[in-house]
Fold this sequence. Notes:
Layout: H1 2-6, H2 9-24, H3 32-60, H4 64-88, H5 95-123, E1 126-127, H6 130-153, H7 164-188, H8 214-248, H9 255-277, H10 281-310, H11 320-337, E2 341-342, H12 344-362
Antiparallel strand pairs: 1-2
Helix pairs in contact: 2-3, 2-8, 3-4, 3-8, 3-9, 4-8, 4-9, 4-10, 5-9, 5-10, 5-11, 5-12, 6-7, 6-10, 6-11, 7-10, 9-10, 11-12
Amino acid sequence: MWLRSMLSWNVLVPVLAIIALAIAWPGKGLGIGMVIVLALLLAGAVLTAVHHAEVIAHKVGEPFGSLVLAVAVTVIEVGLIVTLMVSGGPETATLARDTIFAAIMITTNGIVGLSLLVGALRYGVTSFNAEGTGAELATVATLGALSLVFPTFTTTVPGPEYSSSQLAFAAVASVVLYATFVFTQTVRHRDFFLPVTDEGTIAAEDDHAPPPTGRQTAVSIVLLLIALVAVVGLSKLESPAIEAAVDAIGFPQSFVGVVIAMLVLLPETIAAVRAARRRRMQISLNLGYGSAIASIGLTIPVIALATIWLGGPLHLGLGGTQLVLFTLTVIVSVLTVVPGRATRLQGCVHLALLAAFLFLAVNP
């Protein structure tokens, strides 16, 4: 039994990924075959990282579980952004903005919309806690405005970017808001973020599987750290191939940010849909909005620190089309969240906004 568990995919993949990273580093002169192998290991490392985050989440329970998943995914995203910016030079000035905005669109419209649709198709009407979800949405909207909207309109520095002091303010505000959200979600008003029944009462915990043992949790913590290191390192090796592939198919360079966001949020999406199928819609919404909050609240401070040695410009301000999409997403999300109940129509509306974002990202 012990040998079988040690030979499982979620143990072997991160180990193989870290070995491949050590062999291929620093990545000069990689052949097409090696690039493909590293890409497969990168995808596998992302999946195993979130798998082990799920194991830890199952041990600590909700809403801590959703928080663990969101932070794990965000660490991956930040690692990808920073490594691509370091290797890409001035051409990656908009990478952080494109990736964060893509993460917002994918989480608030993709994860939320797909979860609502799956839940409504299975149960007719889905129920969630409007108080907790509304607080999450308000935090997403505020963080998004501070980080991505205001730079478009500030005048201290020409172009859609912050001055050093403005960027520092946005970074500090992001950290404070994220810390306040975590405290509210896990300590002060934890019951706002727990699954509810159709009658509005807190639902009982799932009993579909026993929680992992302390030893299993410890192993998952170690393997999660290994997988995260592998993801960051392999992303640096794969960055030239990602940019070349985007150029080869004729997509705008900004689509690189969309690729990064889709890569790191795919496992999160799977986890949210699973929760929706178990009638745990609040968990799905915690995953979606929590990932958006973590994506902004943790990425902006790290990017602000990284600009000290990156040296190049950092364009954070959204363009006109993106501003319209962001505003429409916030309005539609408010209308979805306020009733505390949703049908397949709300899911389809959010998915339509995601489709519009993807289409306009390819055809700006």
